[in-house]
């Protein structure tokens, strides 16, 4: 259960102000089928984070527990510091829009998550907890918690959430997770 809660919290906080939230906002403005957008976000995130968790669990098999502790701890701190850098909206690839709300959302979200902070966090969480199901469930739920309200509330919500404060809180959370991991708390590698 710790893997699920940690993954949910870490990804939900890391996702606030992320480029995929801007993508959700764009897609909600472009398409009126909110349920298709939400389904596309879910499918893309599930596949992306499943791949990430498999990678994290696989990597953990080849690295000693002590080395894994250092890799995961330092990586959490690096992701935390990375969260202080706001995402830039690089523009949406419009060629995917012809596939409708679900198709465009699934493809664009999957592509946007590649190499993203939340994908890297999912790899690290899976390596740390060795609980692939709970990490994927938590990271997917966390991403949905952060993006579904954007689909429905969009611009009004984005004006009220101070992105800088959220990025700072997320930075602190990831740095704390990193320090706890480095101190030897909660890392269970078999």
From TrEMBL:
Q: Which domain of life is it from?
A: Bacteria
Could you tell me where this protein is found in the cell?
Membrane
- Family membership, please give it: Belongs to the GDT1 family.
Name the residues that span the membrane. Answer: 36-61, 67-84, 96-112, 132-153, 165-189
Annotated keywords: Membrane, Transmembrane, Transmembrane helix
Q: Mainly localized where? A: membrane
Cite the Pfam families for this sequence. GDT1
For membrane topology, the record states: Multi-pass membrane protein
Coiled-coil residue windows: none
- The name on file for this protein is GDT1 family protein
């Amino acid at each position: 259960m710790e893997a699920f809660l940690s993954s949910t919290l870490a990804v939900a906080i890391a996702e606030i102000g992320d480029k995929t939230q801007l993508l959700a906002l764009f897609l909600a403005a472009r398409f009126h089928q909110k349920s298709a957008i939400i389904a596309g976000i879910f499918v893309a995130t599930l596949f992306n984070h499943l791949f990430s968790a498999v990678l994290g669990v696989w990597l953990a098999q080849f690295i000693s527990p002590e080395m894994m502790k250092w890799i995961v701890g330092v990586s959490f701190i690096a992701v935390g510091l990375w969260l202080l850098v706001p995402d830039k909206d690089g523009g949406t690839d419009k060629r995917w829009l012809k596939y409708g709300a679900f198709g465009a959302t699934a493809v664009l979200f999957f592509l946007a998550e590649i190499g993203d902070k939340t994908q890297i966090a999912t790899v690290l969480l899976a390596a740390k907890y060795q609980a692939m199901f709970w990490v994927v469930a938590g990271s997917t739920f966390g991403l949905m918690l952060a993006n579904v309200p954007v689909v429905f509330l969009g611009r009004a919500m984005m004006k009220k959430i101070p992105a800088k404060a959220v990025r700072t809180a997320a930075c602190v959370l990831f740095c704390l997770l990193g320090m706890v991991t480095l101190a030897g708390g909660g890392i269970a590698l078999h």
